[in-house]
Amino acid sequence: MRRAHLLGLGFLSPALAIILMLFLIPVLLTVMFSFTNMSTATGISGGAYEINAASLRKLADAGAQESFVETLGKESFVVDDAGITAAAAAYGEQFANEVGSQMLGERFSSRRDLERAFRKLKSRPRSTRDIKKAADLFKRSVLNIRFETAGGLVDAVTDNGIEMTPDQQELLTKTIYTGWTWTSDNFALMAQIPYVWRVAGNTVLYVVLTLAASVGMGLFLAITTFYLPSSAASSFRAIWFLPRILPNVIFVLMWKWLAWDTGFLSSLLANFGVPPRNWMLDTGVNAWVFIVLINGIVGASLGMILFGSAIKSIPQSMLHASEVDGASRWQQIRYIILPQLRWPIMFICAYSTLSLLTSFEYILLSTDGGPGGATEVWSLMAFHTALDNYAGNLQYGLGAAMALMLVIVGILASLVYLRIFNFNDLVAKPRIEQ
Amino acid sequence: MRISIENFTKSFGDTTVIEDMSLEIGDGEMLALLGPSGCGKSTTLFAICGIHRMNAGRLMFGDADVTEVSSQKRNVGVVFQNYALYPHMNVYENIAFPLKVRKESKAEVDRKVQEIAGLVHIGELLQRRPMQLSGGQQQRVALARALIRKPDILLLDEPLANLDAKLRLEMRSEIRRIQLATGITAVLVTHDQVEAMSMCDRIALMDKGQIVQLSTPKDMYESPSSDFVAGFLGNPPIAFLDGTVADGGFRLANSQVTLPVPSGIEVPGEGAPMRFGVRPEFFQPGNPLKVPGKVSFVETQGREELYDVTLENGAVLRSIQSQNAGFKLGQEVSWGIEQDRVLAFGPDGNRL
After folding, report:
1. Mind listing the pLDDT tens digit for each residue in B28-54?
2. What share of chain B has pLDDT > 90, as a percent?
3. Domain of A197, in residue numbers
4. Which residues on adjacent β-strands are paired with residue B299?
5. What is the C-alpha end-to-end distance of chain A, expressed in Å?
6. From CA A358, how far away is CA A378, in angstroms rounded?
7. Around Cβ A416, how many Cβ atoms within 10 Å?
8. Are both A280 and A360 inside the same structural domain?
9. Contacts with B73 from chain A: Cβ below 8 Å
10. Does the N-terminal or the C-terminal CB of chain A have fewer CB atoms within 10 Å?
11. Interface residues on B facing A, Cβ-Cβ cutoff 8 A
């Protein structure tokens, strides 16, 4: 490798680092997370095994036999050394020795059975209350105990005298684990979400409408400013560029102020007897109109600049030629200007499709997917699922799987666009004569 | 169609490019607007086709006042310097464009395109894109597009400037042939005096927004109205001698040499500055009115040889002679001026 190559690599390294840190690693992590069931409940570090009321319900849901679940939930009474020691401390050595010599190792499925056995002993406590208390000392249960390993849990359960088939054992350890595990269920789970197809449809609608609005507005602005005197045109362009340099939050806040029930629209229309309402969230259609306008106006400024400069690069003499050839303004736009904007238009379409697919900030800030999910798009759904869930259980794994779908769609779309653009032609040497 | 420009004034912002210009171009005539860059010749052309609006004055096509008519409605064909072909259309579509915007029928368009393509010899190129054509072919397409709707006037803005020398020669006669074949009134803008002289019926020589002389090429060459015109026309260019009037003759500056003044001109007062212009073909060894000097430059042009002769006072005369004269650089010579062909100019530069 020559020194110049090393130098080039050196200059490139910040960019490579940024690509690695901000693109490749996040994508890899997304892929990784999408094959886990991580959520707020599981945490992102390890977990433990614990049988409790909630995990027993989960076990029943997972299809465990009712009797098995019942046995696990029940308490049992075992005469063991620990119990005998406790009994010696509470009710004297004599009682403890008698229990130890006659009943060691015996099991009772209920306290009453143990009490009955105690009553046969000579040195038993006198009062019924004390016998009950003594029996309680031998109560053994796997409920509400944390086990760090599956083996510990299984041992404890067997020690409690609960017999398990291997199937039951596997089901138990799998179901009651509180940490995350590797799984490919997220994709099946995604397909089962009842509103998922509506969200997919919304995404297509969002991309198509916003793209149409921003390209249309961009073209309109570029062409109109082209025919304006240059000073007026540049101030006009500057005004249209404001939304892009304005902080997103402030930009959307102004739209909200325009639309909400004490805002500009409502106040204005109140004069005509229209009852005030939140125009943005009033109906689904309204919400879409606002979403498309908010995104379209920001997108239009980019189109305006790109199309504007493309129009300016058309030689003046070509426009003069079309004029003396008899073309009217409209014919000039239709036959001379628009055909030469083909590449910029396609570029904006390709670029915007990819960025719109993944962008949700304006929707998040304005309608947050409302009203009633009418404007929920895929990326926002992924965000809501993984990071901002109303129910509070943030499903990182499922959200990551949703995001992964976007990554796949984005890569496929890029391949299609590269094909359409015929990238090699675009970077070919210009063939400029003259 | 006759074009008449009356009292035409054009300014861009504070700069007045053309002031109070008048010009008459006859029906079927080919006129050259000739002049150095920035003299206003292209501005005049753009005013005729309506791309530039006139600030003052009147423009008539035939008997119609078209001053306020938009360029779309003037029915003028224009060939631009860079041809201004539409890159996204093929040759056929380019040529058909003026008919397409007039919504003529397909059959009619096709017939006219084939006809004009035959006239300019590009019948076999119709399916190509402009980018796939050579400069000369692009030029022919531009001509065909300008001519297809039978315009009243054909305007050519430096049509040969972007061609190489050989093609330029070929297209010079082509354009003239097509203009004569169609009988169209044509205006050619050029800074090249050879183009103007070889292609046009008349030349309007412009300088600083004014027409300084309007006449036929031959007339303009032989009797220029000023030293500017004399200097602009002719290749190799004319040589000038500065001096004063002395004893009714022409005394060279810083010298005792006195030359007789050509007959029939009005000599200014004694001691007034005067300029002689001598074309290279009229400064030859055989002429009687000898001027001594030294050969200071020799240029072989093939058929001819060009000599610069530096006179004793430092002034330079130019001579063009047929091959094999065999003069060497630095050689002392005494060649003669053809007295009657000397052009004499007064102190203001105007011809005497």
Report:
1. 999 999 999 888 888 999 999 888 888
2. 32
3. 193-426
4. B306
5. 40
6. 8
7. 12
8. yes
9. 326
10. N
11. 46, 49-51, 71-78, 80-82, 84-89, 97-98, 100-102, 131, 135, 138, 145, 149, 162
